């Protein structure tokens, strides 16, 4: 099977030993690029979210999206589209950083479609701000050839926070473990459409 002999991380995902730049593009092994992609470690979904937001605000959007994917994978069904929409805003920023306005616009459209069914504020995130950015940045990408960076992560005073169930009104009392490889693979499987009405904060 292709890729079967590749080194793998503890969660089952392939380990890319080749250096990559901050937008995730592979570089030669002997690169002298000073700004390389960093691998981040965390034990809980809450830490992944906190780190993802910090990286987002540093415009390190590829690294931010990798952290936020663990939040998405662990989310309950009713929050899956929400977190995926948030991630798609970040990934659109990666496409823009790579000089791909067409890809950025397409992802911003998808992000807006996923986020629009949610309230204006959800899980401590200003969803309305993300939707407005997705709309205007997609237009800029198509008309001007660049979407522009996403805003600082639009967190409300109490957020963002991760909910383990749809009826949660605040963060869980206990930390949520990062999904293991089996859970991560399950999260990737297609689902039937739902019908809906400065310094690292982790001290590194």
Question: What is the gist of this entry?
Answer:
With 204 residues, the chain is mainly α.
Description:
There is one protein chain. 38% of the residues are buried. The protein has a two-stranded antiparallel ribbon. Helix 1 (45-57) runs antiparallel to helix 2, helix 2 (61-74) crosses helix 6 (181-188) and helix 3 packs antiparallel against helix 4 (101-115). The longest helix has 21 residues, at 77-97. The chain has a single domain (45-188), classed as TTHA0068-like (Hyaluronidase domain-like), CATH 1.10.3450. Strand 1 and strand 2 (125-126) form a beta hairpin. 44% of the residues lie in helices and 2% in strands. By secondary structure, it is an all-alpha fold. It is built from 6 helices and 2 strands, in the order H-H-H-H-E-E-H-H.
Give the tags.
mainly alpha, disordered N terminus, 44% helix, disordered C terminus, 2% strand, single chain, 204 residues, 6 helices, Hyaluronidase domain-like, two-stranded antiparallel ribbon
Secondary-structure topology with pairs:
Elements: H1 45-57, H2 61-74, H3 77-97, H4 101-115, E1 121-122, E2 125-126, H5 127-144, H6 181-188
Antiparallel strand pairs: 1-2
Helix pairs in contact: 1-2, 2-3, 2-6, 3-4, 4-5
Beta strands, count: 2
β-strand percent reads under 5%
Please state the oligomeric state of the protein chains shown. single chain
Classified by CATH, the class is Mainly Alpha
Largest sheet: 2 strands, antiparallel
Q: Tell the overall outline.
A: globular
Average pLDDT, all residues: 80
What is the annotated CATH architecture?
Orthogonal Bundle
Strand order of the largest sheet: 1-2
Superfamily at the CATH H level? Answer: TTHA0068-like
